[in-house]
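Can you make up a protein sequence with its C-alpha cells?

===
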Amino acid sequence: MPHRTLLFLNITASFLLACGGVQAEVTEYDRSVFQTLEYGFRCKQETTGSALAPNTVVGSVDLIDPFIGFRWKSSRVPAVLGLSFGVRTIAVPGTQFENVDVVVTHPPLPESAVTSQSWSTSITDSNPNISSYAFDYPFELVPGSWSFEARSKGRVFYHVNFEVIETTDAATWSKACEIGGLSS
C-alpha cells in the first residue's frame, strides 16, 4: 500500500505541474441535445470488441462497456502510451440522431501526415455516448492541439479542444495504469 500511495502522490504532482490541475472552458455543445457533456482522460480500459472505422489510421475503433469515467478532468493530456482521452455525453430525453460523425483533428502523424480521423456513431437518449482516442502506438504521441467534434448534415453537436503535451513522467503515468486503481 505505501508504494501505491507514493505513486499516487507522484502522479498527482506530475498532473498538477504538467496539466495545470483544472478543467479549462474549451467546449461548445448543443444544450438542446445534451443534458451532460464531460471530457478528460484516463488509463485505457479493456475493450469489449471493435467496430470498423475506415476513416481512422488503424481502420477500427475500440468498443468499451461499461465506461468507467474520466479519472482526470482536464483538456491537457500527457502524450503517454496507455492513456485515453475524449468526450462523454448524455442526451436529453427524446433525442435520436443516427449517422453522426465524430471527427478527431490533430497535428500531422509521423510518416502518414494524417491530420483527421473519423467514425460514425449515434446519439440517443437510451445510452451515454463515449467518443475517445487511446494512445496505443508510439506514432500517435503527437503533442499539440487536438479536437473532437460530433456532427451530422452540417449540424455540429459538440466541439471539444484538447492540448496533448509532452511529459518527462511517461514512466510514472504508465506505471499508474499498470497497477490499476487510478483509472476511475
In short: The chain is about 15% helix and 40% strand. The two ends are 18 Å apart (CA to CA). Residues 150 and 156 are 6 Å apart (CA to CA). The first strand starts at residue 27 and ends at 29.
